[in-house]
Amino acid sequence: MILTVTPNAALDLTWWVDRIEPGATHRVPSGMARAGGKSLNVARVAHQQGAAVLAIATAGGTTGAELDLELRASGLPHELVPVAASTRRSLALYDAGNDETSIFNEFGENHSDAEWLLLLDAVDAALPAAHCLVGSGSLPPASPVPGGGYDSADFYPELVRRAAARGIPSIIDTSGTALLAAADAGATVLKPNRDELIAATGIGDPILAARSLIARGAGLVLLSLGSAGMIAVGAGDEYLSARLPAPLVGNPTGAGDAAVAAVASCFAEAGNGGTDLSSTDLTSTEAIVRRATAWSAAAVLMPLAGEISPLHAELAERLIIERHTIPHATESRS
Fold first, then answer.
1. Contact by Cβ (8 Å): 87, 9
2. Is 95 a catalytic residue?
3. Which domains are present in the chain?
4. How far apart are CA 11 and CA 91, in angstroms?
5. Which residue in 205, 257, 276, 281 is the catalytic one?
6. What is the pLDDT of residue 328?
7. How crowded is the C-beta side of 47, counted as CA atoms within 13 Å?
8. What are the start-end ranges of the H helices in 8-89?
């Protein structure tokens, strides 16, 4: 079973516009409202592909009630932890004329200490049946709350530690200091995009930046490069790159989440303990990067995050996968 945890869930609102004209009024077809947050999207993709999943998320206020209703209707196995703050919203505007998606994410509000503990209790109860733990998405800002004191920045490292204590692989997809903290805790896989990686590490070369996370304790860094595909960097002297011969046109909103779902499904299929990423043999890593890149590309072909096109198997066959030697150079900060 794949266990996903969403500490800062969102009600995702999506509209399609023929062409966005700044400052103009636009009439558009009815938009779509869907329970979101990166880990919920991961769970949807994995569930769509036949994996057993349980999605744990927070929900509060009127938007939290909408999120609950949509999840019930979707059939996605889930457990919601009630919180006092209203669930945030995320707005995606797809400009068909320019083939661009603009996303507006509310920050959300911090949870109380008791609410954070309830979320961790839900994770602990589900872990014995899990073969993989996924924590992805933003964390609520660390603003003071009544009776607050829990440091949300420690949440993802805590997930990593609790998974490791049971011999379960962990996948973390986040940014900023939370990404560094997850590496320090020994996350099995980290999946930043290029901008997130450079911003978190302060290292301009993405390969060296990924290597710095490996040095901190991460097992594998799977780096999203957008239309240029993905690279996978581990502890060995080689890294892998995967890309399609030509970029796809579509909505990239959920591409990264689909990649995480692909990695999680690899671990779930491998059974408890997952794949050994400490080996210098890149066979297992190649399988992971191939599926992750194919599912990520297949997500671009779908209108909403949390789904992938049935063409993913065909896309996997079309991928160009190459091995590269990591230069033994002195790491420099940009």
1. yes
2. no
3. 2-325 (3.40.1190.20)
4. 9
5. 257
6. 62
7. 19
8. 38-48, 61-74
